[in-house]
């Protein structure tokens, strides 16, 4: 039997949770290793050998070392769960579109807004909330009449978008105006193997 994939993460990180969630959804053998972010473990050796950018998540799968949550989702899907990434060119490109949304507007919107409330980050909360609205308006409209972001079944696009969207209220971004998004989140949460990220009682979630 192959050894467990090591996922270096932090319990309150949505980027880390994205990877942990996917590992659980596809049932791949893995273990989560908490990196001590508050004490800067991610900025020192030996962690920097795993990710010179000094960020979690990163994984070790045998001799493969990989950082960046979306890159890890692509790797895990291609290697262990090809059903989670479309084989056709257009479907794959559509997935990439949502990975980009996750890496840009979701990271700079709801994730950044949550950083200000959960971690006291000195970021422009109003700007983050305005980017969150932009991203959620796109998602709300896209999810009209659709169960999943791409095609007829869940893909890594859904996993990439899920966590920071679900936890947006912690950053004072309400999901009340977005019924399609809320129904989408409930569908992800009903998937076999779903694991939640630890909730924090701040912002609208207080
Ligand atoms: N693009 C990266 C972003 C990862 C990221 O921002 N990680 C945060 C935790 S959510 C981190 O490690 N922050 C620590 C730091 O930047 O010092 C990914 O998708 O993995």
UniProtKB/TrEMBL annotation:
Stretches assigned to the GST N-terminal domain: 3-84
Annotated PROSITE patterns: GST_CTER, GST_NTER
Domain of life per record: Bacteria
Source taxonomy: Bacteria, Pseudomonadati, Pseudomonadota, Alphaproteobacteria, Hyphomicrobiales
Name listed for the protein in its UniProt record: Glutathione S-transferase
Xref: Pfam families: GST_C (PF00043), GST_N_2 (PF13409)
GST C-terminal domain span: 88-206
């Amino acid at each position: 039997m192959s050894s467990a994939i090591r996922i270096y993460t932090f319990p309150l990180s949505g980027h880390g949770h994205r990877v942990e969630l996917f590992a659980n959804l596809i049932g791949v053998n893995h273990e989560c290793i908490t990196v001590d972010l508050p004490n800067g473990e991610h900025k020192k050796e030996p962690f920097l050998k795993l990710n010179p950018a000094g960020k979690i998540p990163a994984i070790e799968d045998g001799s493969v070392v990989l950082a960046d949550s979306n890159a890890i989702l692509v790797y895990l899907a291609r290697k262990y769960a090809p059903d989670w990434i479309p084989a056709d060119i257009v479907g794959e490109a559509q997935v990439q579109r949502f990975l980009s949304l996750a890496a840009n507007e979701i990271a700079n919107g709801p994730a950044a807004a949550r950083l200000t409330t959960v971690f006291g980050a000195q970021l422009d909360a109003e700007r983050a909330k305005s980017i969150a609205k932009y991203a959620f308006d796109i998602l709300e409209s896209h999810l009209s009449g659709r169960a999943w972001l791409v095609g007829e079944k869940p893909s890594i696009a859904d996993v990439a978008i899920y966590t920071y969207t679900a936890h947006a209220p912690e950053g004072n971004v309400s999901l009340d105006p977005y019924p399609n998004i809320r129904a989408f989140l409930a569908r992800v949460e009903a998937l076999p193997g779903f694991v939640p990220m630890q909730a924090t009682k701040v912002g609208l979630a207080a």
